[in-house]
Specification:
By secondary structure, the chain is an alpha/beta fold. The protein has twelve helices and nine strands. Strands 1, 2, 3, 4, 5, 6, 7, 8 and 9 form a nine-stranded mixed beta sheet that branches. This is Glycosyltransferase. Keywords: Transferase. It holds the Pfam family Glycos_transf_2.
């Protein structure tokens, strides 16, 4: 995929899709403007035809605003931004997250040092919960990490810096995904390129459980099921990785009201990894009515939050 030919092409194109989050978007844009590295362009894609974001965009000729006439979803918004971009590198940022000021500078220095067989570099992040508790993630995996990614998506969506050529090689975001579209893209890139990391927390993610797609169980279910279907042959190369993905699909199925399908996926997961006794707990929960299941899941979530705090 070639960049659009313009004078003074920037080194980095920052892509920010947005939908009904003006206040959070202003914070995200400010974190880009405040970067210590200045050779960038910012493309903001408004996926809400009913909301005007013009008033919150700074007067900066490096910032471009794309307006969708109808809601098309985050994958299409990101793709449109990438296709409009000019940079050698593509940086992704969600509208409700932000970067620390030195993020781009450290990533570009690191990626410039690595060979061209490295297609993506990611960083650590701070995760701020609704309660105000902060959990910090620091990367520890680099190189050919495709096999590691099959077990867990450890690349935070607001941190990657990606060589433009990667999109020509593996394609853009898959618009068919309701969720997990970032995981799908990372798997495709990691199958063709090495992955690099900056071992510092350089982004901030806000876990607003009322508004994020990640808390929508219906979208979770469809995204996880599609991911497993699309990358089935890769997951089947490792029985534990396949078990983990079947567990993720099973839990999303149960929490979206598909108890029988969820129990089937959880049983398949247990057969491949019988040492994971937590699967027996989830299978037992499937015997209860759906309202009781949800109360048990919420109790589990509260325990996890207390542990993290």
């Amino acid at each position: 995929m070639r960049s659009r030919q313009r004078e003074n092409q920037p080194k980095v194109s920052v892509i920010v899709p947005t939908y009904k989050r003006n206040e959070e978007l202003a914070r995200a844009i400010e974190s880009v403007v405040n970067q210590t590295y200045n050779d960038w362009e910012l493309i903001v894609i408004n996926d809400d035809p009913e909301t005007d974001i013009g008033d919150i965009l700074p007067a900066d000729n490096r910032i471009t605003h794309l307006q969708h006439e109808e809601n098309k979803g985050a994958p299409v918004a990101r793709n449109n931004g990438i296709l409009e971009s000019n940079g050698e590198y593509i940086a992704l940022l969600d509208d409700d997250d932000k970067w620390k000021p030195i993020k781009l500078e450290l990533q570009i220095d690191r990626l410039d040092q690595l060979g061209e067989d490295f297609g993506l570099i990611y960083t650590g992040r701070d995760i701020i919960q609704d309660s105000g508790n902060v959990e910090t993630f620091i990367p520890d995996k680099e190189g050919w990490v495709h096999k590691d990614l099959l077990h867990q998506n450890f690349i935070p969506s607001e941190t990657p810096l990606i060589r433009r050529e990667c999109f020509s090689c593996v394609g853009l975001f898959d618009p068919a995904f309701q969720s997990e579209q970032d995981f799908d893209l990372w798997l495709r890139i990691a199958n063709k390129y090495k992955i690099g990391a900056v071992h510092e927390s350089l982004a901030v993610s806000y876990k607003n459980h009322e508004n994020r797609i990640s808390t929508n169980q219906e979208r979770k279910y469809h995204g996880r099921k599609q991911l497993l279907r699309k990358h089935r042959s890769s997951f089947e190369s490792n029985s534990i990785a396949l078990s983990k993905q079947q567990r993720r699909v099973g839990l999303a199925a149960v929490r979206s009201g598909r108890t029988l399908e969820g129990a089937t996926q959880l049983m398949c997961s247990f057969r491949r990894d019988p040492r994971n006794v937590s699967l027996l707990v989830y299978l037992t929960m499937c015997l209860f009515p759906y309202p009781m299941q949800e109360r048990l899941f919420k109790f589990r979530d509260r325990i996890i939050q207390q542990y993290l705090s």
